[in-house]
Amino acid sequence: MSQSSTTHDAHGPLLRRSAFTLIEALMVVAIIAVLLSLVLPIARGAMASARGFSCQMGLRATVYDFAVFADDILHGQRGSDATSQSFTLSSFQDSVYGVNEFWAWPSDPYMLPDARGANPMRCPEVRGGITVRANAPCDSGGVGPTQNVSFAFNIRLHVREVTTPAPAAVPVRLSAAALASADSSVPLIWDTNAAAAVAADITPFYAGPALGSPAVFAGDQYWWPGLRHNSGMNLGFVDGHVAATRRPLSEAWRWGFVPGS
Fold it and tell me: Which of 77, 89, 161, 257 is deepest in the core (most CB within 10 A)?
């Protein structure tokens, strides 16, 4: 009897000491929750910064391509509406997307991003892919759905506003000479809120603030900035550099620049 009692006393306390109590388990869960609350915001911030950097790299590639496209010596194919020394912004945009006469995809229609990772003119913060179609400009069915468009080009490099004899938007032809008076403060392309533009029945491919316009650009109807990078937007400029801002119209940039004027 005494030996049996000793064996029980020897193993019983040992088994009880090796088990977690409910309070200890709750303390472990609480510590893990605190650690996660500290780590997750840092991880989300790092991922957001990486996506913002990826967006800027995409814009940097586009403004570099624009500089080459505008150069009278370096440019290659400029599209069917080009002359020997001038082109339209819409042709350059088509070339970046690889649509219309710049068709660069193995089938028609073609969905992007594809298995190779091809995804031109896309900000990683914009969800949903795009479909490109041959034989159509990007702003006339060549790229869609339009609410998934990431970037807008400066509309004042696309059309010029006139008020006489009647308000109208006159196409702008770009050239090295026409862009000679542009400088590092002339925006070329930036993050746009395409979904908001589409909801207002406005094409999101070209944008720009009204700047007091009485006619075509009046009422900021083409101004849909995409403030999606920590409440800010990324922009690329005609001189090739990229910047970010939370207050785009407060910056000392030449939003009203018109080529040749």
Answer: 89
The string of pLDDT tens digits covering residues 230-261 is: 999 999 999 999 999 999 999 999 999 999 76
Q: Where are the domains of the chain?
A: 42-77+148-250
CA distance 47 to 100: 35
pLDDT beyond 80 at 41: no
DSSP conformation class of 191? E
Where does the chain have alpha helices with state H?
A: 2-18, 22-70, 89-97, 194-199
The SS3 assignment for 235 reads strand
Phi, psi of 162 (to 5 degrees): -125, 155
CB 260 within 8 A of CB 178: yes
Please report where in the chains the tokens 């586009």 appear, as a residue: 62
Rg (CA), the chain: 28
Query: How does pLDDT run across 63-89, given as a tens digit for each residue?
Result: 999 999 999 888 988 988 878 789 999
pLDDT in tens, 92-143: 999 999 999 999 999 999 999 999 999 999 999 998 999 999 999 999 999 9
Contacts of 196 (CB under 8 A, 6+ apart): 224
User: For residues 173 and 157, what is the distance between their CA atoms, to the nearest angstrom?
Assistant: 8
Distance, in Å, from the CA atom of 231 to the CA atom of 183, rounded to the nearest integer, reads 26
Structure tokens of 255? 């939003």
CA–CA separation, 36 and 39 (whole Å): 5
Would you say how long the chain is, in residues? 261
Mean pLDDT of 24-33: 79
